[in-house]
Structure formats: structure tokens, C-alpha cells
Specification:
11 helices
Length: 288
């Protein structure tokens, strides 16, 4: 493999991996507060993608598509938090986990009923090089994905590390009872975390739709398990571990496809990496 080919694969892996990180980051935020794996988050991702597709079909403007995807996903995520997760607060974690899996499957069926089982095109950007890193051309969709995810990840860092809201979230994640006694209202802050997590998933769904020029009802299936793998790889509850694991997984998948071809599907890379890491570090790469 020459360096130019490696460069193309690395850019592709970074783009896809950054979307993995963006999607998994929402899971990390929710897990930090509820200690529950929000599997239905992948359904929120698909709802956001369809919201973006509808907006782009009406306006042919990528900015509106991203905003609509974030809004649709946020509203759907807040509905799930209010209708499903809030009544189950304090229940054994297995109960909301099983219910969340059912919600994820039901969301895919609902999208299939509303929009049909077929792929819908989202031709927001032409896949032609707009930036060159030496001999490696970076396409417009790749630039949009990398720039969009970088800005959002920096924004999430600003919220979680530099604001009173982020301080309240960290306090609730460390000790719910003490934080409540200090005047922090868990339902309100959980809803805000769901809103942010869902908005991130919605934007990720639209970006992937733009990257692959398609949205479809079951597009949340792959993020459902890859985001879970990223969260566990990075360490449960570790924000920057999630980001690093997402990018790393994207790079490994891209390079594995080049070296192994169809002999080992990229989907299997996530689980192989998960098994290897858990054997060496059961707490994840960045877990404590």
C-alpha cells in the first residue's frame, strides 16, 4: 500500500470515526446520569436523519437540513425521556435496557411505515475533492463531516467542562443523592442531557446521510452496536475516551477493509476490537 492510498483511507476512517464518536457521545451523557445504556439512541439518530432529509427536500439547503435533523431528534429524545425513562427512574437497570431495545426496533418500523422501506437520496454535497493534503484529495462530504463533528465536539466540551450545567451533570453522575440535597434537580438536568445527546445524534444522522447520500429506516442498526462498542471501548462514562475510541474504530475499520477486503467485514472489527480491549483492560481504554 502506498502513502497516497493510506492517506485516503485515513481521511475516510477519520470522517466515519468522528460520526461514531458524535453518536456515542450522546450515549455517554445519558449513561453518566441514568446508568442505563440508551439503545433507543440509535432510533433517535435515524429520526434525525429523516428530519434532515425532509428539510433538504423542501429547501435544498444543508444548514436547514442539519438544524431540522437536530430539532427532530431532540424532540423525539425528550419524548422518550419523559414518556419512558422518567417513569422507570430507580428501577433495576435491566428493565429500561430491555425496553430501550424495544423502542429502537419500534422506531425503525415506524419510519418504515411513514416513509417506506426504500432508501431516500440526500445529495447535499457532491463527492468531489475540495481540499488537498499533498496528493490526498478530501471530498466535500468529508470536509463537512470532519468540520461539523469537530465543532460539535468542542461545543460539548465547553458545555460539560466550562458551564454550571456541566458541573451539575458531573455532580449527578458522581452522587445523585448528594447532588439533589445541594439543590440540583435531577429530572430537569436529565431532560437537558437527553436534549443535547439527541441533538448530537440527529446531526450525526444527517451527516452520515450526506456522506453516503442516503437515508433509510434501518440506518440506526449499525450505530446501535457500534456506538455501544465505542462507549465500552473508551470506558463507560468517559467523554474523551468515547471520542478517542470512536475515531480509532473508524480508522481501524477503514484500514481493515483495505488489507482484508471482504474476508473480514468491517462490522466485525468493532466486536473484535471490543473483545481484545476488554481482555486487556476490562474498564476500557480510558476508564478508571
Amino acid at each position: 500500500m502506498d502513502w497516497v492510498t493510506f492517506g485516503y483511507l485515513a481521511v475516510d476512517g477519520l470522517a466515519v470515526g468522528s460520526v461514531y464518536a458524535l453518536t456515542a457521545l450522546g450515549l455517554t451523557l445519558v449513561y453518566g446520569l441514568l446508568r442505563v445504556l440508551h439503545v433507543a439512541h440509535a432510533g433517535v439518530y435515524a429520526v434525525g436523519a429523516y428530519g434532515g432529509w425532509l428539510a433538504y427536500s423542501a429547501t435544498e439547503h444543508l444548514g436547514f437540513a442539519l438544524a431540522a435533523g437536530a430539532l427532530a431528534a431532540t424532540l423525539f429524545g425528550l419524548f422518550l425521556e419523559w414518556w419512558f425513562y422518567r417513569p422507570l427512574a430507580g428501577k433495576p437497570p435491566l428493565i429500561p435496557l430491555i425496553g430501550s431495545i424495544g423502542l429502537f426496533l419500534a422506531t425503525g418500523d415506524l419510519l418504515r411505515i411513514l416513509f417506506g422501506p426504500y432508501q431516500q437520496s440526500l445529495p447535499a454535497l457532491e463527492p468531489r475533492p475540495v481540499l488537498f493534503l499533498g496528493a490526498v484529495g478530501v471530498t466535500a462530504p468529508q470536509v463537512a463531516v470532519l468540520l461539523g463533528t469537530a465543532l460539535l465536539l468542542l461545543g460539548v466540551y465547553g458545555v460539560t467542562a466550562r458551564t454550571r450545567l456541566g458541573l451539575a451533570w458531573r455532580a449527578l453522575a458522581q452522587d445523585l443523592e448528594v447532588a439533589s440535597a445541594l439543590g440540583i434537580h435531577p429530572p430537569r438536568h436529565t431532560a437537558l442531557a437527553f436534549a443535547l445527546a439527541s441533538a448530537l445524534a440527529g446531526v450525526a444522522g444527517v451527516l452520515i446521510g450526506v456522506y453516503y447520500n442516503q437515508v433509510y429506516p434501518t440506518m440506526g442498526d449499525v450505530p446501535a452496536y457500534k456506538a455501544l462498542a465505542v462507549v465500552v471501548l473508551g470506558g463507560l462514562g468517559s467523554v474523551w475516551g468515547t471520542v478517542a475510541a470512536g475515531v480509532l474504530l473508524g480508522l481501524v475499520e477503514s484500514l481493515a477493509l483495505a488489507f482484508l477486503g471482504n474476508a473480514f467485514p468491517p462490522e466485525g472489527v468493532a466486536f473484535l476490537a471490543l473483545i481484545v480491549v476488554l481482555l486487556v483492560r476490562p474498564q476500557g481504554l480510558f476508564g478508571r
